[in-house]
Amino acid sequence: METIISYFTTIPSLHRGFILAGGIALFWLIENISPLHLFGYNKAKHASINIFFTATTIIVNFTLAAALLFTANYTFQNQWGLVHLLPKINIWLYALLGLLLLDLIGAYFAHWVQHRIPVLWRFHLIHHTDTAVDTTTANRHHPGESLIRFICTILAVFIAGTPMWLVFLYQSLSVVFSQFNHANIQLPKKLDTLISYFIVSPDMHKVHHHYVLPYTDTNYGNIFSIWDRIFGTFSVLENSKIIYGIDTHRKKEECNSVKTMLKIPFKKDFKKL
Predict the structure, then answer these.
(1) Euclidean distance between CA atoms 181 and 46, whole angstroms
(2) What is the rounded CA–CA span in Å between residue 231 and residue 200?
């Protein structure tokens, strides 16, 4: 564990970039070998749209990284946050509890809120406009949502009180797991179901991308699937019945144009879910 702590305390930005790119490359290859759906789309063109939003997310995160570092250092120096209320425990258990807290507050709860507050939904909607969900969809976030998600991460770190090494570890895991559960891959059904009891599996998350309610408002989990089960937002839908996208924005020019998607949250005639 000391090696892990040391590495993630000072993980170079280049390494974080390799984790992101490596995950996309790995699941991209698996998608070609064992795809869940045969979309019949231009995979490279589709990826270029999502990679644009991936790039804007990276820009937002790196621009505001100092605020996250300050928050983590503040909580550590002042012994602030939920993890500091814990008795002295095994470092592995401490890390697991820290990851669970970051996942609950900064991912599950933040995701749930974006579906509940209209002004936040305007930005998060862009993630749902993808009608061909694959591993590149994981980072399809409007710059406005990237800012919202970053603020939620800071809030999660402040409440949880997790040190920076644990934050970097969580973010690295989050990137890979998100690419995994968005990937257009076909796992054996029993294996996918078994995985879904612990972490968010591909079949589980695909339900969240079904184009109509109530499924759109279920399966909010990011890494750990327990939150959906605990808070009653877990649902199941057969893959054959899933239609990707969002019912309020079905036009191809809305879903496949970066320029149009950047403008959608600011439209006066915005269509609500």
Answers:
(1) 18
(2) 15
Q: CA–CA separation, 258 vs 133, rounded Å? A: 16
Give the chain's length.
273
Determine contact, residues 147/261, Cβ cutoff 8 Å: no
For 134, phi then psi, to 5°, come to: -145, -170
Mean pLDDT of the chain: 93
Please write the tens of the pLDDT for every residue from 159-184: 999 999 999 999 999 999 999 999 99
Please name which of 176, 82, 185, 179 lies closest in space to residue 136, comparing C-alpha atoms: 179
Taking the CA atoms of 133, 135, 138 and 143 in sequence, report the sign of the dihedral they define: negative
Question: Taking the mean position of all CA atoms in its chain, how far away is CA 10?
Answer: 23
Enumerate residues 6+ apart whose C-beta is below 8 A from 54. 20, 136, 139, 140
H-type helices in the chain, by residue range?
A: 2-9, 13-33, 43-63, 65-77, 91-103, 110-116, 118-128, 143-160, 164-182, 189-195, 202-208, 226-230, 252-255, 258-263
The pLDDT tens digits for 199-234 are 999 999 999 999 999 999 999 999 999 999 999 999
The string of DSSP codes covering 7-27 is HHHS--HHHHHHHHHHHHHHH
d(C-alpha 161, C-alpha 91), whole Å: 15
DSSP 231: T
Report d(CA 71, CA 187) in Å as an integer. Answer: 39
pTM above 0.85, yes or no: yes
